[in-house]
């Protein structure tokens, strides 16, 4: 059985207007064309859908049962048709974004809020994942755009520069190394709260493995590291843009020297498939946003100033 949309539309129109002639006029086809569509439909379902008299047409008992299902199916098709048209014209769409934990809870919410204000018809969904899963989320089609620290691109992934951030020490203001010309050799002597042991390994590869870092705690999430630093249990190491979050714990950022380290944050995109128009619009917006607003200089006043008006949900 292969019902057609045209048959369903004719069935609903005849049922609503109770006339083959009126249905033909409404659909801009002849009365005989409507009759043929209904006859073919009844032949496929195997039961009469209308009781016909010389004066009017009414639904049969089977027709009344089919009417509800046909009405719902036709409505869903119209919604799908509208959605497809909206996607092509950028009046609507959806972009799924995946971010490594730190950037997902600092810069990305501000970026998404500004994008929503600029493109209110495009829905952006943000999910945070461990950095090890950011690229695979794009490979599997769970996200179209990803953000995180620089890593070698995996299969079918393009890595694009997003912004650069200096690695800083996040600590309480009263920490002995805070607010002065502090060096890596000095930081190695104080307890470090590591977010994953590999994070310190990446830094040690650039500043030297000897003497080793003093690891005070190893945690999985940056907010935990910041909370421990705020309690005086050590210092955290992260890009300076993380101060957007760390400031809420009462922490300050101190640039470390000998050498000054920089980390590249990247945007990850699919190489094997074309971005949707909505995703391409988001990528262009994100690229321009970090050019206009350096993530490393966003203090509390600037973040408050940049924050769009409170988003409220309007019931439909």
UniProtKB/TrEMBL annotation:
GO cellular component: cytosol
Ranges where the HTH lysR-type domain occurs: 3-60
Signal peptide per UniProt: none
GO function terms (MF aspect): DNA binding; DNA-binding transcription factor activity
Keywords: DNA-binding, Transcription, Transcription regulation
Pfam families tied to this protein: HTH_1, LysR_substrate
Family label: Belongs to the LysR transcriptional regulatory family.
Protein name listed in UniProt: HTH-type transcriptional regulator HdfR
Organism placement in taxonomy: unclassified sequences, metagenomes, ecological metagenomes
